[in-house]
User: Fold these one by one.
Assistant:
Number 1:
Amino acid sequence: MLIFYALLLFMIIAALIAVETKNLLGAVICVGAIGFGGALMFLFLRAPDIAITQIVVEVLSLIILIRATIARHVTPVSGDREFVGAVVSVAIVLTLFVAGVKVLDALPPFGDPIFVRTPGAASQTYLEQGLRQTGAANIVSSVILDYRAYDTLGEATVLFTSILGAAAILRGKSRKLVKESDA
Amino acid sequence: MLYAMCFALFMLGLYCAVVKKNMVKIVLGIVIMEYAVNLFLILLGFRTDAVAPIVDRQFLETGADGMTVTGAFLRQAVDPLPQALVLTSIVISLGTLALMISVCIRIYGKYGTFDITEIRRLKG
Amino acid sequence: MKGMTVIVKTVAGWAKMLVFLFGVYIILFGHLTPGGGFAGGVILAASYVLLLLAFGRRFVEEDLPLALDSKLDCLGALAFALIAVWPLIWGGGFFVNFLLKHLPESALNLVSAGTIPLSNIAIGLKVGASLFLVIFLLSVFSDDHGTKTRATGRIADPKE
């Protein structure tokens, strides 16, 4: 139990540094620290699938973020700011904070998940019948590819669309560059 | 208490995304919020003294048809449903991160800065 | 991007096969052990990103051309959709595990899970190809932008 508090404290400290530091590369590396702390946390929370995925995704996203920031000089952000914008953003943060604190009272105690106390919960059925109905020993795999495969199809569509958008944005610029260098 | 710390992480990400003026900082705030939400969903499904939701040979009922899991597995396994949802969400977050970063790079190429107030001033 | 020193190149040349094989293992055994199509696909992409970082862009472009990469991406998505609609032809529902009743009844086998390993392979192909595609495009773009600003010096000066 203590390891969870230690890891979450580490993640919060890294997030504080990432939010407040002036150095963009340092902020990116602190976000990487949060991600690897989260991967360790998933491992201790008995979710090895997510731990593996989180580690490899973290490596690739660090590469993407570092490539975006490393060659560009950090622009010093000017101090002036509109009064209305500042008030509105502080109001948004405070409203969500109050709403979240209200919700914290209604949560179940840690270590006692909801599906245990709910008769006929879906998760209980997956655990009991997953091996017999799908043949997969990894219940998470049987959920994402058999019971809820429709969800995974939508996920694949979202991934396809976002990669298509990134390719369209980047490729338009490259084509213009090629044309300009020809002229 | 763990939920409250997770919520604090989420609020840090939200503060970073709403208040900061550097575009890469906004992207980092969104990434921190994603971590916090994923972690919260996994925390909701945890049991004390739990095992991962993967059937091993020791959790198979002996003598039955070889497809029946034991009661110990049902009493100990963590919730598999949030894990399945978070697994897809992590990979989606990588795709959206690539999209956001390409938008940032494109804006940097056009305006030469990551500062959003600067960009707004240059628009007119 | 020209690539790194000979030490990095040698080690990357040995490590790339191991990383690639580990990704294939994670995909194929995704229904028995932790892992699956998502994690394995990202590992496959990471093996080619390792090549990209160590050897430079030209080497990877010869090894895996962009056109082939897009085709692999579309092939993965198409295979997953095909697995979804195939049972409709034989009177089942969308995404029914149609192979399960034709397989031998035994748990914890490599072929015991019906369509789940096939879906894992399709998802792994799709995720790996698309993630490598976007990282490759990002690297190409950064290079072009850098040379452009250094050559003209005008685009980084938006004050006028």
Number 2:
Amino acid sequence: MRLHEYQAKSVFADAGIPTPDATLASSVEEVVEAAEEIGYPVAVKAQVHVGGRGKAGGIKLAESRDEAEEAAESIIGMDLKGYHVDRVLVEEAVDFKNELYVGVTMDRGEGKPVAMVSTKGGVNIEEVAEEDPDAIAREHIDPAFGMHPYQARKAVYDAGVPRELARDVASVLQTMYQLWDDRDASEVEINPLMVTEDDEIIAADAVMNIDDDALFRQQELAEMEEETFEDDLERKAGEYGFDYVRLSGNVGIIGNGAGLVMTTLDLVDYYGGEPANFLDIGGGAKAERVANALDMVFSDENVDAVVFNIFGGITRGDEVAKGINNALEQFDEIPKPVVVRLAGTNAEEGREILNDELVTVEETLEDAVQRTVEYSEEEAQ
Amino acid sequence: MSVLVDSDTRVVVQGITGGEGKFHAEQMMDYGTNVVAGAVPGKGGQEVNGVPVYDTVHEAAREEDADASVVFVPPAFAGDAVFEALDAPLDLVVAITEGIPTQDMAKVNKRLSEVDTRLIGPNCPGIITPGEAKLGILPGNIFESGDVGLVSRSGTLTYQVVDNLTSRGIGQTTAIGIGGDPIIGTDFIDALELFEADPDTKAVVMCGEIGGEDEEEAARYIAENMDTPVAGFIAGRTAPPGKRMGHAGAIVSGSGTGTAESKINALNDAGVPVGDTPNEVADHIEDFL
């Protein structure tokens, strides 16, 4: 789960990290009111989960009432990389002389959290990591002990943060690790951490992502969740409880198990088709889930044909087949051709049960995918 | 022969009184696995399918001389359950549970570096030595005893590749599902090491997927350390960056690390042929044997 900037900043501020004066607004009037209150210049920032908001026109600086109004009019209601902007953060624009980076994330390779500090803030840290890896000081944290205070200092000195700021930046980093640990974060980041002319530091942006698997014990954060989906189909998948990713092609794909579904997508591509989605229905495959999965892919107007690929492990092929029959019998007319491939436990019985007036049955994965790609090409014409 | 588990492995099922635990304990026993105990706090003294249940893993290990466990405990409590098995101590812990908080696994990972216990998973289908024992949820009927070792990050993709092998008469020594999470116990290199050391394993299949750099590291290991031939498969060639493809670990990062292309290239550079389809993996293995 990703917190919005305004939410992350409030969590950081509560923990004692300095953040600029800011107010959330959802109309032009509210923006102007907030700007007048805070005093110019202000930054008007779109609250959507999109990287590179600034470049995409989602952040504007306003020096006056007119400019605040203008910024609000152009940002509120805009479409930012597929996300509708309905709220902005109106924030005191900070005069700065330097921009730093501080963050904590999970280093997968090491299986440990890593704290990072850099004096090259204000740009995408992944780019810095690629172009100038030495510009980022890294300190791996033992999760059993937490971050030792010396580690925060060491990261700060190793990064070359000016001496007069070292204590404050180390303190911010220590607080960020504590938040990471207490709140089950997968990532916390301040980029940039601005340094003012008076050598004050202030968090000009804030990122906080929470481990979805830990939300059960992070009630307060879980309640902040605001579902944002790129489109209605992803919303629907959320309701049905499917792992679903929408893609741009015309071959609908349903399967069980992430690896096998990914493989099915790859094979569609390999045989010259274009996958329309990733949809993992998980274990089981009861009639209702099968019906919901078909509803998902049929609702995608780009889909011209569907491949249903189930490898029965503990799930038995005959039960899956009954589920597919039941689901398809609900339709007066099958909207798009469906190819079914069943393998594994009781697959043969399953194939016999499948109603071949409703679906095309194939025995191998390769044949099923090729047949579906053919159908998709015929339908597309 | 086999690696890690055989018909002598004495297994505790953690969470044996839950729906999943009970069902799969029975499936494992039907397959021939030597399930000697269950462990569920508060349920000590009960029996499930004739198997005695203990309140703690320590007690189960002591009373029944158990040396391995399979964890079917819900995600909120699974990290603790794994710790309990590590501290008992058992030789092998197989964690099936999906959705364990990552920070719990980071702590488990730290503990693993201090003990001799091996962890497989979490979020994995388990491990099977065909004809002898299975610890986990793999469907026993698709496996056959033979010469090929298999290690995979995914469940059903493993079944697919095994099916391609078994249907042409190629059996397996042991198959290990290492799991699709970002932090796991046994990784590709650990499994490859075991297969390299097993005289009966004549060839190895390695099924990877997008995300992380474990496959690239495994490729380097293979090039430097392995005589046993390896064939590979990588799922997720068509996955767009930034989208999690089901598994928590299966995501190509925004900066482009973790791509299928990088993994396939690394494997090819290490002399490992990578199949375009699961069936092509079986072709490569057939060529090796």
